[in-house]
Design goal:
With about 300 residues, the protein is of the alpha/beta class. About 30% of the residues lie in helices and about 25% in strands. It is globular. Bound molecules: ribose-5-phosphate.
């Protein structure tokens, strides 16, 4: 008889457990340790031959370690004769460098995808990629789901329909438009004129195209990393007279002191998903402002018991 298992890497056990409980697909027993020289050691302690495996692993920090772990788990399954290996990668790290922005840079997204494809992964499920472009770098099937309907549900329930959707930059305009449409809105979305230096990463804002006075403003974005975008965008919107500011962020990377920086600002609510586990110390800063929505329901339809 054929069986399915969920294999959890070390990046997001809570999500793997949640998906396992909801789907009734058991969590496979694995050993994910380290040799004394720091190299990852993987052993899948289930019957592998002929079975289906869903590896849940976000490419969150430490990113390179999590990529390596995912590759070693997949390789172990391939060598053991798994019939199907599906990588569930809720946050696809290295998806940001999907172009050679400056001469001399690597096309990192493609390198990571090529790497993943050599270890026997048959298909990949992911959430809110930074850019759809990278789907073209894959030769295996990719299921790309979005958390927008989950955010919209939360916004409608807590703030009603009368909100203004504002993209923090031109790059996010498509996402903001989709968000507004899912809200049932047909009007103009707000877009902030933002420029980020390709060399230093510094963010500069030049203004917004809409009147936000006395409005509840919702900012959808794919991730918060250093927090620079939010730290610049929020005061601009507040100064323009917004009544409330809500951020809907798919992936809470929250690098360095981003959580602390954001907690100090005028943001009223930060809604994120559980694609990335937020460390306890960072949680402390955001506690009162933070809501976490699970993306498990988006993944579940693609898993078979
Ligand atoms: C930009 O293209 C992204 O969608 C995010 O808006 C941005 O890069 C977030 O990064 P940070 O928090 O470092 O400003």
């Amino acid at each position: 008889m054929k069986h399915s298992f969920i294999i959890s890497g070390t990046s997001n056990h809570p999500l793997a457990e949640k998906i396992s409980r909801a789907t009734k697909i058991p969590l496979g027993k694995t050993l994910t340790g380290r040799f004394s020289n720091g190299e990852a050691q993987i052993r899948v302690e289930e019957k592998i031959y002929g079975n289906t495996f869903y590896i849940v692993q976000s490419l969150s920090m430490p990113v390179d370690e999590h990529i390596m772990e995912l590759c070693l788990i997949a390789d172990a399954l391939k060598r053991g004769g798994a019939e199907k290996i599906v990588a569930v990668v809720p946050w696809f790290g290295y998806g940001i460098q999907d172009k050679v922005f400056l001469p001399g840079e690597a096309l990192s997204s493609k390198v990571v995808i090529d790497f993943l494809q050599t270890v026997g992964i048959h298909s990949l499920i992911t959430v809110d990629l930074h850019s759809d472009n990278i789907i073209g770098f894959f030769d295996i099937p990719v299921v790309h789901v979005t958390a927008i309907p989950l955010f919209v549900q939360h916004i409608l329930k807590n703030y009603g329909k009368n909100v203004l959707v504002v993209s923090p930059d031109f790059g996010g305009a498509k996402r903001a438009r989709r968000f507004a449409k899912t809200m049932g809105q047909k009007g103009t979305i707000g877009i902030i004129d933002k420029e980020r230096s390709l060399t230093t990463g510094a963010v500069e804002l030049r203004g917004i195209n809409l009147d936000v006075k006395n409005k509840v403003v919702v900012i959808p974005d794919d991730f918060i990393s250093t927090g620079s975008t939010m730290v610049e965008v929020i005061p601009l919107i507040k100064k323009a007279g917004a009544e409330k500011i809500i951020a809907c962020i798919s992936h809470p990377i929250l690098a360095k002191d981003a959580a602390e920086k954001i907690s100090r600002g005028a943001l009223d609510e930060l809604i994120v998903t559980d694609t990335i586990v937020i460390e306890k110390e960072k949680m402390k800063f955001l506690k009162k402002k933070l809501s976490v929505i699970s993306i498990s329901s988006l993944i579940m339809p693609y898993l078979r018991v």
